[in-house]
Amino acid sequence: MFINRQIVAGAALVLLVALVAGCKSKFEKLRASNNIAQKYQEAVKYYNNKKYSKALILFDDLMNKYRGQAEAEDLYYYTAYTNYYLRDYTSARFHFKQFTDTYPNSTRAEECRYMGAYCYFLESPKTGLDQEYTYRAIEALQLFINLYPNSERAQEASDLIQQLRDKLEAKAFHNAKLYLDMGLSDDYRAAVIAFDNVLREFPDTKYAEEMEFLSIKAQYLYANQSSTRRQEERFGEVLDMYNNFISAYPESKFRKDADQLKRDAEIGIERAKKYTTQLAAASETKNEAADTPQN
Length: 295
Hints:
InterPro entries: BamD, BamD-like, TPR-like_helical_dom_sf
Strand content: under 5%
Distance between the termini: 135 Å
Order of helices and strands: HHHHHHHHHHHH
Keywords: Cell outer membrane, Membrane, Signal
Pfam family, one: YfiO
Number of helices: 12
Helix content: over 70%
Domain Outer membrane lipoprotein BamD-like: 37-222
CATH superfamily of the largest domain: Tetratricopeptide repeat domain
CATH architecture of the largest domain: Alpha Horseshoe
Structural class: mainly alpha
CATH class of the largest domain: Mainly Alpha
Shape: rod-shaped
Protein name: Outer membrane lipoprotein BamD-like domain-containing protein
């Protein structure tokens, strides 16, 4: 009985290996075939059945065979989407662009132009990484909108651009905050400049209120670490920034902290004025002493 079971199990294993080998052999025979029409049909079947890896191998094999022929347009199209479904967005983008460059008047040119831009969008990295592909995605999506302003995809492209701009805003905001967190005088000044640059580049940013408050804080810390003779002017800038902030955000959640910075800046100004007065008096006394004749 035990021996029979072993025989059955062994036979089943041999059959399974044979089936696997047969399937592999069928695909390899298809690749080696000179019947390009059959190979093309089978490639499309693999594609439709979502067997994209095998479909791509066959599409690549067929690319040179159909170059310049009517079937080439479909082949470019399938190849682009096959790479896309395999999540090879760099290759997909290349083939979508190749399609639009080769067949600019095709009814699928608009679609492929959009998909090429969308691949850039998918390649846009997380906020903490270099944003080169984010800028490229914005450029490609904007080009699509310019070329096809009446397309039903134009609004989708616009929405994607906004998502990318939100990412750039977040990165710029966090980069500016890094200067503030470093805690050195020059870094505080750099933070003020960085916040201002972000607000200029993204005037409608959702971080505007917080950045304007942090600019006041950074300017205060910068003034506080400055030499006494420069503090009056720099604390004065804190008051100017405070007034602009309160005018723009009278009910700000940062109001209490902003008010405290204002009071501290006013104290700093008085301290600086007192120092300047004392310095001037000491200088005058020194000059008088120098002018007094010696007996």
